Every structure is written in C-alpha cells, then in structure tokens.
Amino acid sequence: ANVYAAFDEDVRGWEGVSQAYFVDDFMNDDILLEGIFVPPTFTALALPFVGAKHTAIMAKYRNLASIGCIVSDHGRGRVRRSIWGTPLMTYNLAREDAHRFGRAIATISRLWFAAGAREVYPAIAGLPVLKSESDVARLESREVRPGDLELIAFHPMGTARMGLNPRAAVVDESMQAYGVEGLYVVDASVFPSSIRVNPQETIMAFATRAAETIDARFARLGG
C-alpha cells in the first residue's frame, strides 16, 4: 500500500534514486517502509478521489510524495480450475495482516505530518484524507479490516517452492521440477517462503545455481 502526502513546497519525487530510503525498525513484525515514487498514471489510480478534487491534486503532482508499506503476509491463496476450465486464483488477506497494514499506514502518516505535509491520503476505505495528527489518532483507534484496503502484490514468492520432499515441493535443490525431466524453475516462485525484501539478487543467485546444474548436466552428456 502506498501512502501519499501533499506538501506546499515542491518535492519533485521523480528526481534522485527511487526507493533510496527505508525504515526497517518494524521488520520483526514483518513490516517494511520504503520511500517510492511512481509515474503520474499510477499516482492517478492510487488517489482516492474523482472529479475536481482529483484534478486539483494531480495538477500539483510536483508537490506529492509517497511511502510504500510492505507487509510479509500470512494469508493463503489457491489456484484451481474454474467452471469454464480457466485458471482461477483466490486469496484471503489474514486479519492480522490487515492490522499490520493499519499500523504501518498510521506510522507513515505520522512521518508525513512530522515532515510538514499538508494532507495525507492513507488509502483506507472511509478515510480518504488526513488533515492533522488528530486524524491519525482516529485512524489508530479503528479496526482496519481486509476489505478496507486497496493492495498490490509485489514479488510473489513460493508458488513452486523448493524442497527435498516431492510431496511438499515442486522443485528440488537444483530448481529441477519433480516429475518433469529437464524442466527448471528459476524465479522467485522457488523460494520456500517470503524473504521479506526485494528478491532480485536472490533470484539471480538461484538462476546461476540452476544454470550451473544445467551446464554440468550437458557436460556429462557430452553436449
């Protein structure tokens, strides 16, 4: 979830290095806060307004800033065949994760007001804008339910997880798929669980391991 804030002064969030700042004080509770900024099209979709209010905020795009809150979720999802024969994906956000999002959003809102924000947009249903610290206290006093949040899944992991037991895993320790000779999976789906951070370097390491395994296999075959 991204929490936007509007300032009186120019922020020009598109300059510099995106995601250069983060807060990891809450990692023990599976919460990571990251400074982030996105193009106008994505910002426009994220703001909880329409009409004149939406137009007025987007006209001051240079005055906006945002921090994303990432929660390592504990909910469960499922992929199955629909009645039309197509894949059907479902996911239920755990109530405890909704509480974590509420805590993270309140923390970010306090950070924004401490930095001088004029308004904060917490992306919670029924609470489109915060005007002051007292509004943050009101947010903290309410129960944030899964249906109150508009969320995006980043870096899904574990859908084809690695393991030594073919009954509980999809691939072995070399990313070779069980039951399908020559099929290797080399993305974040092989992670046994969420690593709670951006996975690019870990994916590269796993892909290198799979490539070395494949290379050794061809060498044995004389190819």
Please, could you describe this protein's structure?
This protein is α+β, with helices and mostly antiparallel strands and 223 residues long. 30% of the residues lie in helices and 16% in strands. It has 5 helices and 7 strands; from the N terminus they run βββααβββαβαα. The strands form 2 sheets. The protein has a 5-stranded antiparallel β-sheet, with helices on one face. A two-stranded antiparallel ribbon has the order 5-6. A hairpin with a 7-residue loop joins β2 and β3 (31-35). α3 (95-114) packs antiparallel against α4 (133-141). The longest helix has 22 residues, at 200-221. The model has no long low-confidence stretch (mean pLDDT 90).
Main attributes?
single chain, elongated, 7 strands, alpha+beta, five-stranded antiparallel β-sheet, 223 residues
Radius of gyration (CA) equals 21 Å
SSE order, as H and E? EEEHHEEEHEHH
Number of helical segments? 5
Largest sheet: 5 strands, antiparallel
Structural class: alpha+beta
The percent of residues in helical segments reads: 25-40%
- Which percent range describes the beta-strand content? 15-25%
* Rough outline: elongated
Q: Give the strand order of the largest sheet, numbering strands 1, 2, ... along the chain.
A: 2-3-4-1-7
As residue ranges, the low-confidence spans are none
| Extended strand count | 7
Strand and helix layout:
Blueprint: E1 2-6, E2 22-23, E3 31-35, H1 40-46, H2 51-59, E4 64-71, E5 76-81, E6 87-92, H3 95-114, E7 119-121, H4 133-141, H5 200-221
Antiparallel strand pairs: 1-4, 1-7, 2-3, 3-4, 5-6
